[in-house]
Amino acid sequence: MFFNLIGGDDYRNFPVKPMERTFVMIKPEGLQRGVAGEIIARLEKKGLKMVAMKMLVISGDLAKRHYGEHIGKPFFENLVKYITSGPVIAMVLEGKNAVSAVRSMMGSTDPLKAEPGTIRATYGMDMGRNIIHGSDSLTSADREIGNFFKTEELIEYTRSIEPWVYE
Ligand code: IDP
Ligand code: MG
Q1: Per-residue pLDDT tens digits for 35-81
Q2: Is 70 annotated in the active site?
Q3: pTM
Q4: Counting ligands in written order, which one lies closest to the CA of residue 144?
């Protein structure tokens, strides 16, 4: 588990909290439609801390590993073909309950059923073009982060705004 303690030595007596890390990806349609920056801005404004980010074209092997739980499902082949079809932006975000914070900002898998205002409801029309991926649990997050990033690509740093994000 990538636990990270922030503010441990803080002279303002800022409490120590274990933070979660989650894996987030802007899918190819996000870049093609020119909304990647807007989506990243939403996550950033929420208070989540970026600890890693890169743009890449996913290989077939990586796509199959990333979506391994869906092998055999009717949409699997298309999903792998699509997710490898153009560049994506992969990132690791850190925060209190980061996994569920991102999932609730994303909304349901089907953008037409996603709660209005969520990222998928705002930017998407179709299940296969739902704009964003976010880990569904801490276990998935660890696995997915490991699939996309080397440990040395996860950057440790302190943000001075932390006490204005967390009580
Ligand atoms: P999630 O992304 O909300 O966690 P999953 O069920 O893990 O949803 O599915 C992974 C991705 O596969 C979805 O984000 C979506 O792009 C695609 N997908 C899932 N179910 C379908 C489907 O029934 N038809 C087409 N694509 C699907
Ligand atoms: Mg999923």
Answers
A1: 999 999 999 999 999 999 999 999 999 999 999 999 999 999 999 99
A2: no
A3: 0.91
A4: 2
Residue of the CA atom closest to atom 13 of ligand 1: 109
Euclidean distance between CA atoms 104 and 161, whole angstroms = 23
Nearest-CA residue for ligand 1 atom 17 is: 128
**Taking CA 48 as the corner, what is the angle to CA 38 and CA 36, rounded to the nearest 5 degrees?**
20
Enumerate domains of the chain plus CATH numbers.
17-55+87-157 (3.30.70.141)
The pick from 23, 75, 85, 102 for probing ligand 1's pocket by mutation, whose C-beta has the most ligand atoms within 8 angstroms, reads 75
The two three-digit tokens of residue 29, written as one number: 């349609």
